[in-house]
Amino acid sequence: MPDTFQLEIVTPEKLVVKEAVEEAQIPGLGGYLGILSGHAPLITELGVGLITYRAGGSTRTLAVAWGFAEVLQDKVTILAETAERPEEIDVGRAQKAKERAEQHLKGSDPQLDYDRAQDALQRAETRLKVATER
Predict the structure, then answer these.
(1) pLDDT tens-digit profile of 66-96?
(2) What is the DSSP string of 67-80?
(3) Global pTM?
């Protein structure tokens, strides 16, 4: 069995990653999944979180939000709404989004879509975490 598998991460705008990797961790809705070569086939929905993968001895991290992942023994395909590398993240914008989400959640607006505000906060925090790992 080979020690690597093909990882492809695609958004509606572009192909973000296409390379042979030794391992990956992806954020499923029920928690993170660790993937190695030869993994049992599965399809899962993605949540908001970090995708980390190791290729050529170095570890890389991306911020991802929503989508699906198909895991096969020799290939993982991730179709994500968004996927950003650390250098692509606007830290100032992410910080403002975090502050906005926190203000919404602290407020007492009865019209607040709580789930949407929670998602916005989680997404901003994830983006900030990835950006600081440059």
Answers:
(1) 999 999 999 999 999 999 999 999 999 999 9
(2) EEEEE-SSEEEEEE
(3) 0.87
